[in-house]
């Protein structure tokens, strides 16, 4: 029996404000005596102040942990807890009984991981919200040096690129664990309201920083992914600033007018439904944070 925490809850972030909302949910969902929380800062530009994330270890870049894929592999090799949870910063745990349910599921000898938010188009837990048995993953991934990295399977220049077999973050790790004989429970708990999931948050913000607001607006016009990320950041900005009125503001300096115009022009039913989904998620996060004390304060 473990004498320390049972699970390390790990995430990677570029933006401190996003991590702060994430931490407000995680720190209310895991008991302090059962969990250790780690946040890897995948940026040299945006500084995470540990005071904003009480009870959390903030990890910086190192030569062996240069970016988030290496950070996932490093976490698996390094942690001393029997379980490891990867939870993306745009996936928010908003129910106190989720961890006890996952913990009980992991006691089954055949279960290697429980994925609370899984990929839709392929059988993979990604890194959205998956809790894994550390020993099982270490053993299964011995033959997979890439670990949680994405990959292209047998790229062939003579074959059109759209026919290449691509694997996203965590896909190959999922396959390796299943091939080693472990069962991975694939759930979609954002559909039930037990998780609140916002899509494309980090990449849309990063794109605006690199390419400018006009380029991001053009991408939103062409891609639902960037449109969802832009809109999600607007909703999270209002939520963050309500939850933390005395701290730094949510650093997304773009307005809503371009998106509102697009909502009237294209796919308006889908876009309005997605806006309702985000508002519901934000309301659930706020109610959860305000109604429960932080276990890591």
* Regions with little confidence, pLDDT below 50 for 5+ residues: none
Label the overall shape: globular
Could you give the count of β-strands? 11
Provide the CATH top-level class of the largest domain: Alpha Beta
Description:
This protein starts with 6 loop residues before the first strand and ends in a 6-residue tail after the last helix. The longest helix is centred in the last third of the chain and has 24 residues. The protein has a 7-stranded mixed sheet, with helices on both faces. It has a two-stranded antiparallel ribbon with strand order 5-11. With 297 residues, it is α/β, with parallel strands linked by helices. The chain folds into 2 domains: 180 residues, Spore Coat Polysaccharide Biosynthesis Protein SpsA, Chain A (Alpha-Beta Complex), CATH 3.90.550; 93 residues, no CATH class. The protein is globular and about 50 Å long. The model has no long low-confidence stretch (mean pLDDT 92). 42% of the residues lie in helices and 17% in strands.
Q: What's the short story on this structure?
A:
The protein is 42% helix and 17% strand. It has helices at 16-29, 68-78, 98-106, 134-140, 171-179, 201-211, 213-222, 224-243, 257-265, 268-291, and strands spanning 7-13, 35-41, 56-59, 83-87, 91-93, 111-117, 129-133, 151-153, 165-167, 183-186, 195-197.
List keywords for this structure.
single chain; 297 residues; Spore Coat Polysaccharide Biosynthesis Protein SpsA, Chain A; seven-stranded mixed β-sheet; two-stranded antiparallel sheet
């Amino acid at each position: 029996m473990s004498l320390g925490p049972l699970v390390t809850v790990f995430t990677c972030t570029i933006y401190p404000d996003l991590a702060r909302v994430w931490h407000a949910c995680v720190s209310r969902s895991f008991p302090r005596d059962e969990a250790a929380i780690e946040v890897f800062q995948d940026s040299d530009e945006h500084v995470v102040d540990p005071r904003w994330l009480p009870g959390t270890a903030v990890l910086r870049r190192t030569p062996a942990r240069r970016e988030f894929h290496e950070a996932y592999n490093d976490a698996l090799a390094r942690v001393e807890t029997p379980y490891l949870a990867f939870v993306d910063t745009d996936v928010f745990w908003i129910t106190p009984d989720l961890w006890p349910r996952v913990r009980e599921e992991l006691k089954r000898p055949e279960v290697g991981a429980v994925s609370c938010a899984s990929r839709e188009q392929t059988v993979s837990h990604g890194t959205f919200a998956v809790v894994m048995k550390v020993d099982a993953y270490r053993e299964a991934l011995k033959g997979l040096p890439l670990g949680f990295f994405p990959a292209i399977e047998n790229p062939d220049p003579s074959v059109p690129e759209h026919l290449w077999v691509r694997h996203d973050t965590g896909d190959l790790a999922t396959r390796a664990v299943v091939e080693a004989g472990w069962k991975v429970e694939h759930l979609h708990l954002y559909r039930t309201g037990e998780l609140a999931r916002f899509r494309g948050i980090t990449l849309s913000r990063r794109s605006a920083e690199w390419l400018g607001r006009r380029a991001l607006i053009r991408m939103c016009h062409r891609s639902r992914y960037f449109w969802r990320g832009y809109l999600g950041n607007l909703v999270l900005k209002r939520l963050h600033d309500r939850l933390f009125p005395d701290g730094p503001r949510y650093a997304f300096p773009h307005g809503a007018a371009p998106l509102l115009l697009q909502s009237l022009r294209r796919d308006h039913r889908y876009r309005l439904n997605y806006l309702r989904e985000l508002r519901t998620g934000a309301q659930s996060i706020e109610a959860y944070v305000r109604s429960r004390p932080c276990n890591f304060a």
